[in-house]
C-alpha cells in the first residue's frame, strides 16, 4: 500500500476465497482499498481456469458466475476484470472467446498452444490477434487475444525468488559481483522478446 505504482494481479477466486476468509476485518478493508485503487487487480475472476475441451456451457458459466458474485459481494462491482486469463488449460476452444466477449471481457490471455504454432507466430509476429469465436454471431464474439511467448513463469533473468542472486556488495567475497551482468541479461531477454511483437510493449510475467 506504501507504493501506489506497484500492482498485483490475481486470477482464480477459489484460492482467493480461502485466503480472504482467513483474514481479519482490517486486512479485508485494506484489500478492498487496494482493489478500488487498482493496485490489486483481477484477471478472469472465475472460480478457476476451466478446461476448454470437456466442459459444458453450463459448467463454464456457473464457475464464472461463482467467482464474479464473490468479487461483487466482497470487493464491489467496480473491481470486476476486463481481461480473461487462461494460461494453464491445455488447448483452447473457439467457444471460450465467444463466451468471454459476451461476458464483457476486452482481452484474453492464453499460453498452451502447439509449440510449432507458437514458433510460427513468433517468427511472423502473430502472437496477438483478434479472435472471432463464432462465424454466425460475427463481431459480437471478437476479442483481442495475447499468446504468452515463453510460458507464464518468471524468466530466469529475473527469477529473484528462485536461484538467481544479484550481488553488488564488494565487501561480500563469497559471490562475485554480477549486478551489471544480470542487468545486461535482463535487457537482452527483453529485446529478444520484443522481436516477436509489432509494438514496443511486452508482457514479462513475474511469479508462477
Compose a concise summary of this entry:
The chain is α/β, with parallel strands linked by helices.
Describe the structure.
This protein is of the alpha/beta class. The protein contains 6 helices and 6 strands; from the N terminus they run E-H-H-E-H-E-H-E-H-E-E-H. The protein has helices spanning 13-20, 25-37, 57-75, 95-102, 115-124, 179-194; strands spanning 8-10, 40-42, 83-86, 107-110, 128-132, 142-147. The longest helix is centred in the N-terminal third of the chain and has 19 residues, at 57-75. It is globular, with a radius of gyration of 20 Å. The two termini are 22 Å apart. 19% of the residues are buried. The mean pLDDT is 91.
Amino acid at each position: 500500500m506504501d507504493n501506489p505504482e506497484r500492482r498485483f494481479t490475481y486470477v482464480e477466486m477459489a484460492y482467493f476465497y480461502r485466503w480472504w476468509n482467513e483474514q481479519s476485518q482490517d486486512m479485508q478493508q485494506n484489500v478492498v482499498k487496494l482493489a478500488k485503487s487498482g493496485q490489486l487487480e483481477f484477471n478472469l475472476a472465475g472460480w478457476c481456469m476451466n478446461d476448454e475441451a470437456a466442459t459444458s456451457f453450463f459448467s463454464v458459466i456457473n464457475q464464472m458466475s461463482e467467482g464474479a458474485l464473490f468479487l461483487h459481494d466482497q470487493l464491489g462491482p467496480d473491481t470486476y476484470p476486463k481481461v480473461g486469463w487462461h494460461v494453464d488449460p491445455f488447448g483452447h476452444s473457439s467457444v471460450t472467446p465467444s463466451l468471454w466477449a459476451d461476458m464483457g471481457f476486452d482481452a484474453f490471455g492464453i499460453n498452451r498452444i502447439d509449440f510449432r504454432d507458437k514458433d510460427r507466430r513468433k517468427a511472423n509476429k502473430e502472437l496477438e490477434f483478434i479472435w472471432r469465436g463464432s462465424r454466425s454471431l460475427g463481431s459480437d464474439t471478437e476479442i483481442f487475444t495475447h499468446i504468452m511467448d515463453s510460458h507464464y513463469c518468471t524468466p530466469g533473468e529475473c527469477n529473484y525468488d528462485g536461484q538467481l542472486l544479484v550481488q553488488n556488495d564488494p565487501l561480500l567475497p563469497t559471490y562475485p559481483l554480477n549486478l551489471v551482468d544480470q542487468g545486461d541479461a535482463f535487457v537482452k531477454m527483453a529485446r529478444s522478446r520484443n522481436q516477436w511483437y509489432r509494438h514496443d510493449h511486452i508482457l514479462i510475467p513475474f511469479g508462477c
